[in-house]
Amino acid sequence: MVELGTGALEPAEIVAVARDGAQVQLAHEAVKAMEASRTVIEALAADTRPHYGVSTGFGALATKQILPEQRTALQRSLIRSHAASTGAEVDREVVRALMLNRLSTLATGRTGVRTAVAEAYAALLNAGITPVIGEYGSLGCSGDLAPLSHCALALMGEGRVRDAAGTAMGAGEALAAAGLEPLELREKEGLALINGTDGMLGMLTLAIADLHRLLTTADLAAALSVEGLLGTDAVFAADLQALRPQPGQAESAANIRNILAGSALIREQKSGAFTRVQDAYSLRCAPQVHGAARSTLAHAEHVAACERASAIDNPVVTVDGRVESNGNFHGAPVGYVLDFLAIAAADVASMSERRTDRFLDSNRSHGLNAFLADDPGVDSGHMIAQYTQAGIVSELKRLAVPASVDSIPSSAMQEDHVSMGWAAGLKLRRALDGLARVLAIELLTSARALDMRDGGIGTSKSAPVSTEVRRTIREVVQAPGPDRYLAPEIEAAYLLVSSGRLLDTANGVLAEPLN
Description:
Layout: E1 2-4, H1 11-20, E2 24-26, H2 28-45, H3 71-82, E3 86-89, H4 92-107, H5 115-126, E4 130-131, E5 134-136, H6 145-155, E6 160-162, E7 168-170, H7 171-177, H8 189-194, H9 198-228, H10 238-242, H11 247-260, H12 264-271, H13 281-284, H14 286-308, E8 316-317, E9 323-324, H15 332-360, H16 383-399, H17 421-454, H18 464-474, H19 487-499, H20 501-509
Helix pairs in contact: 1-4, 1-9, 3-6, 4-5, 4-9, 9-11, 9-14, 9-15, 9-17, 11-14, 14-15, 15-16, 15-17, 16-17, 17-19, 18-20
């Protein structure tokens, strides 16, 4: 159970609700804070002077004062008109993360909604009812207006949703099936439900969780490639890394050292005849690139923490009871780091693809068959697997083009600069899926190369961690042999990466888990 008070949610709580269906409840402190701020809003509703969002129109229509008898219709019309998304349906986990983040802001007591609104939102989450939202509609300024409006529309019993089983239906039908009543919004409440950066923050939180797994997996993949290409582990020494005290770099180098510990292949290479002075950059500089990505991730975590501690709405009810307009709904901080992470993901994937390519070129693979084919010429081995990697990496480079620099004005020039953070979040999600697939192909390739080096798991010369990782891969992918249908093997390796199973395997061998 995730309890929402007036403080910040933990990242793990957001992931638990978004992905695992964890239940939520409002803390007593949140109820008291909401009741206090609602008293402020109701006093303004009775005032003869106009107050934005309470007794006026919205955006460029804020100059029009709304009569008391029209204010329920004002809130209803706001939600209906702003629920204007289109395109492919957004993933359920993104919508649930968005909803939880909005509920967390409502619980701070800074938005002025009734407790009943927050309770209805919590009930929607707990019932597993997920509004259907199209991927297009948010400019990331005045928050994620269209996506959040679809959620508010569902509270009203309108629009399309999916129930807990994933079945699409009308919101009214889903509410009735869950024993819930549609909500009628009052002054300020429609605006409070849609004026936040909750969608982009949800995508950032999920991406951070995924990148922690993927960057450590990248270290694992690099280590197996160093081993399979008969490289050296000397360059990963702690004292060499300390000469450039980048914390992310040190973490990646330590991971690679720990994975390679006890490798007979590395030991034999050190004691053998002189071959080459140093490895290629894609092997030797893996900690520098992976470490830079880790440092970027650390910055993103700082930004996300600030956002989770925020109460974003416009206008906002201040602690001392003022109702003030502000610009905190602008998504620039989140949009920037979503873009930064897409750049890092593209570069990590690019280096992974280069390591894979070295395995397949007999001029650079140090004794392996061309393309790791069983019978080169008759067989093509992993030739086209690298093509698949290259295609993904090319797309990741396109996805690394920042969305946050592409402001476009809206609302009759009232909203004349926007963040495009929602778009940055969607493209990062696609980029991380691509990164996982690229790393899966590298691991599949390095495992094949190591099998060809030492004859397979039974006679393994690789490090204990590498051997166990290879064993896990061999549970779902056959050992090297004549060409066979490759797509299912790539998908199986992708599932091992995306589920975290390969990391679990590695950590099961080590005394201390990988960073």
